[in-house]
Design goal:
The protein is an alpha/beta fold. It is built from twelve helices and seven strands. The chain has a seven-stranded mixed β-sheet with strand order 3-2-1-4-5-7-6, sandwiched between helices. Helix 3 crosses helix 11 and helix 4 packs across helix 11. It is globular. The two termini are 17 Å apart.
Length: 367
């Protein structure tokens, strides 16, 4: 079934001019719906993509296609792990070929790879910079993380890997005393990994894994906790003028728009979507170069992300996390008015790639 958007199918596809995003916000619609309506009003490429998505949602073969993909992603046999690693190397190669994300003038190159496993991005980068040094953090396999395939430690002294759940680094995120009533009180850590180092490139490739070992109360807020944890850690380790490469999902969602709009004010932003892998999915990469980590705008954003992590971890009546709530109407309006044209410019190649892949998708051709 297609997700509920609050916008009728007719207004999404055949009559985008009837969908007024500003009015929707004034009438209490969600920021996500307003963003989608704004894009339907303004961009034909996005409208075409939505038509193709609707066809996919209506196709009975689509569910089975994506279920099989999820099953394949959870396989942990050696061949599947190697295949996954090779895919990530290929994506890393594509990112650099398209955006020159790995270009560095200062030597030696130091890289921080967050949510590293299987290590394909590290392997891809070391092809470009054989003398680089990589520090990495990865979720342990026992907690549901992927296996690290890239060489490290004794097999490759250039690469250091620390295994931990980065969403539990409470001191890193500004929490001095964890509430002792929290059911996972003993799992929080005051560790601040690689605190003495600064990095010219930071990878943030984490996403919530379906087979991760976590308490049920974390499910609703885990994506927020992981995103904010990566951002805070990345920006507190990045050198001025560094590059951030981050996996994101759904460019038509407010959270993605807000994040990209922030980096668009403090860096040189590019968006990238692989053409060979995951092209039909909503995932894409933010590549932010020359990040001004000491700018007031970014420092304010880090403070906001710290609060979001705290609320998603300790908020709510039970003290185990709550949603951060919707953005204010004025904030959404001002962002779309200021950043909307750039959003469309950046987004068109992403939507075009996904639309082309959907046109060629086997499950759409099986009627």
């Amino acid at each position: 079934m297609p997700p509920t958007t609050g916008i009728s199918e007719e207004s999404e596809i055949s009559k985008p001019q009837d969908c007024t995003w500003s009015t929707m916000l004034d009438e209490g619609s969600s920021p996500n719906n307003a963003v989608k309506c704004f894009l339907l009003e303004q961009d034909a490429v996005f409208r075409e993509l939505m038509v193709l998505k609707r066809e996919g949602w209506a196709n009975p073969h689509a569910d089975e296609h994506f279920k099989q993909q999820r099953r394949n992603a959870q396989d942990d046999d050696p061949k599947s792990c190697r295949r996954f690693f090779n895919m990530m190397v290929q994506i890393g190669d594509e990112i650099h070929a398209s955006t020159e994300a790995f270009a560095c003038l200062d030597l030696p190159v130091r890289v921080l790879d967050l949510c590293m496993a299987p290590g394909g991005f590290t392997a891809s980068l070391l092809r470009q910079h054989p003398t680089a040094f990589v520090d990495a953090i990865s979720l342990p396999q026992k907690d549901g993380g992927h296996k690290v395939i890239a060489s490290y430690g004794r097999k490759d002294a250039r690469v250091v890997v620390q295994y931990m759940d980065i969403t539990m680094l409470s001191t890193e995120f500004g929490v001095i005393e964890v509430p002792n009533t929290h059911p996972e009180f003993n799992k929080f850590s005051n560790s601040r990994p690689f605190i003495q180092r600064k990095y010219s490139i930071v990878f943030c490739d984490g996403q919530v894994l379906p087979n991760s070992q976590r308490a049920s109360y974390r499910e609703g807020c885990e994506a927020t906790r992981l995103t904010t944890a990566q951002l805070i850690l990345a920006l507190q380790r990045m050198e001025r003028g560094g590059t951030l490469i981050m996996l994101l999902h759904k460019l038509d969602r407010w959270n993605s728009v807000e994040l990209i709009s922030i980096f668009n004010q403090v860096s040189e932003v590019q968006l990238f979507k692989p053409r060979k892998k995951h092209a039909i999915r909503s995932s894409f990469y933010l590549v932010a170069k020359n990040v001004q980590v000491d700018s007031a705008k970014l420092q304010d954003a880090v403070c906001k992300w710290r609060k979001a992590w705290f609320d998603a971890t300790f908020g709510g009546e039970e003290g185990t996390g709550t949603d951060i709530g919707q953005a204010a109407v004025g904030e959404v309006k001002s962002t779309l008015e200021r950043f909307g044209a750039d959003l469309i410019r950046l987004g068109q190649p992403i939507w075009s790639t996904q639309a082309s892949a959907l046109k060629d998708a086997n499950y759409l051709r099986r009627c």
